[in-house]
Amino acid sequence: MPGYQTRILELDIAGHPYRLRALSDRQQFADPDGHGERMGVSPAQWSLFGQLWPASRLLAQAVHGIELRERRILEIGCGLGLASLVLQRRGADVVASDAHPLADAFLAYNAALNGLPAVHYRQMRWDRALPSLGRFDLIVASDVLYERDNAVLLAGVVERHALDTAEVLVADPGRDSSAPFTRLLAEQGFVVERTRCAPHDKGSVRGHLLHYRRLAGSNPPTLSG
Fold this sequence. Notes:
Layout: E1 6-13, E2 16-23, H1 35-38, H2 54-65, E3 72-75, H3 82-89, E4 93-98, H4 103-113, E5 120-123, E6 136-142, H5 149-161, E7 162-172, H6 178-187, E8 191-197, E9 207-214
Parallel strand pairs: 3-4, 3-6, 4-5, 6-7
Antiparallel strand pairs: 1-2, 7-9, 8-9
Helix pairs in contact: 2-3, 5-6
């Protein structure tokens, strides 16, 4: 027994069926060696990676329709990895990342569950530099602004890993930290287009898509790595 219970979720993204192994509920917890705590995952937050949140579905729906153009894509805070799985199905060059010690195993299981090749994964804390990860044309995330400090941390991730001309796509349920995050990205030369997504059919979900774009010559990043 792994110390936690799971369930299989079945869902539809843009007409494609997906199956995901998720934690059975938010009461699950298993960190016997303290790995999660060392990675900054508190007991109260431990189970959150293993849930399918509405913003995750919103991001998955969004990335199903984006133009790939051979872009290198990074998902931060991937959790169960739904958006990365959608991108993998489309043949994208995608890297999924998370700080949770079980995210890698769940992502690999979910890729196999959907008959997909394994998604490239990197464990990453938002407060630590990871120079070997490199830079990306597009960075995507869902519901990552749930704490005020996350705006600063995530802006740092963008500064370290976004190319000079890059886009950032965040599915957000309406967190207060979205405003400071937008201001911090504006300082990096990004402009934002905010789209409200209200449910219009059985498969759609409510939330906001925050789409940031930085064009050539608009304050590219200065940090190394």
